[in-house]
Amino acid sequence: MDTKRLDLNLLATLEALLEEQNVTRAAERLHLSQPAVSTQLSRLRDMFNDPLLIPAHRGMVPTAKALELRAPLRLALDQVRDTLTSHQHFDPTQAKLTVTIACTDYLQAVIGLSIIKDLRRQAPGIRVAIRNLEPPRLEAQMACGDVDLALMTPEEAPPALRARPLYDEVYVLIGRLDHPHISDRMTIEDYVQLEHVVVSLRGGDFSTPVDQVLRTLGYTRNVVLSVASFLFIPEIVAESHLVALVPRRLVAGRTDLKLVDPPTISTRFTVGMVWHDRNQGHSAHRWVREQIGHSLPN
Q1: Cα(38)–Cα(43) distance, rounded to whole angstroms?
Q2: Which residues form the HTH lysR-type domain (predicted)?
Q3: Which CATH superfamily is domain 170-268 in?
Q4: Which tens digit of pLDDT belongs to each residue from 57-74?
Q5: Domain 92-168+270-295's class?
Q6: Phi and psi torsions of 165, nearest 5°
Q7: CATH number for the domain whose boundaries are 3-85
Q8: Is the separation of the CB atoms in 121 and 92 below 8 Å?
Q9: Calpha distance 200→225 (Å, rounded)
Q10: What is the signed CA dihedral for 122, 127, 128, 134, rounded to 10 degrees?
Q11: Which residues in the chain come in under a pLDDT of 70?
C-alpha cells in the first residue's frame, strides 16, 4: 500500500461503514451521498484487497479482515481527531451547557452528588440533568442527543458506544441486623433458601444475572420480591426477614443492617462512563468526562 497517497477520508468512511453496516446510514452520518460512499467503499476494497463488507438480508456484514481492522482504525482516527481538537481552548468558567446523564438510582445516590458538586464548582454555567437509565433505549437516546453520558456497567452497554471504566464495585448480601440465617459461614445451599429481593430496572423480572450463574451450578434462589429501585431495598430488608444483594457503596455506613459476602458466586462489577461518537470530539463534553473521572474514588 502506498501510504504517501493515503486519503484519511477513506478511513473515516470505513469507520462509519463498520459501525453502521449500511451504506445509506453511513452516508447520512458522513453527510455524503450514497453513491459517493459506495465509490469510497470500492476504493477501500482495492486498498485492503478484501471485500470488507458483504451484502446481507438487512444491511451488510463485515468480513474477518474488517473486524480485525475495527479497533486499530478507531484508535488511529481518535488520535488524529485529538490532534486536530487539542488546540481548542475550553474555559469551564465561561461555558454554557446542559449535560444529560443517565444512570440507575443506586449511582444517583452514591456518586450523583459528588459529580454535580464538582461540575458546578468548576463550571457554574453548566446545567446537569439526571435521568433514569433505560438500557434498551440508550443507544437511540444518545444518537439523537437526549442523553449525553451514561454511568453503568460498560459490558452491558451497546457495542457501538464508547466506554471508560471508573471504579470497581462489589455486591454484598444484606439482612436485618438480627437476621438468624445469614453469616460469613453460610453455604451456597443456605444462601439460595433465603427469601430474596431483586432489582428489575424494567420492572417485574424475578431473574437476574446472578440467578443465571446459580442455575449453571444447579441452584435456584428463592426470589419472593422484585422491585424497580435499589433505594427501596435497604428499608425493606431492615424491617423484614428478606435479604438482598446490593452494591457495597449503597449501604456503606448503615448500622441497622448485617452485611456479609455471599458464598461462592462472584459479585464484582465495574462502573464506567458510556457515550456516543457524536460527543467524542466535543471539547466541553470531553472536559465533563475528565472531571467525572477525576472526581470519583477508585
Answers
A1: 9
A2: 6-63
A3: Periplasmic binding protein-like II (3.40.190.10)
A4: 878 999 999 999 988 888
A5: alpha beta
A6: -70, 145
A7: 1.10.10.10
A8: no
A9: 10
A10: -150
A11: 1-5, 82-89, 297-298
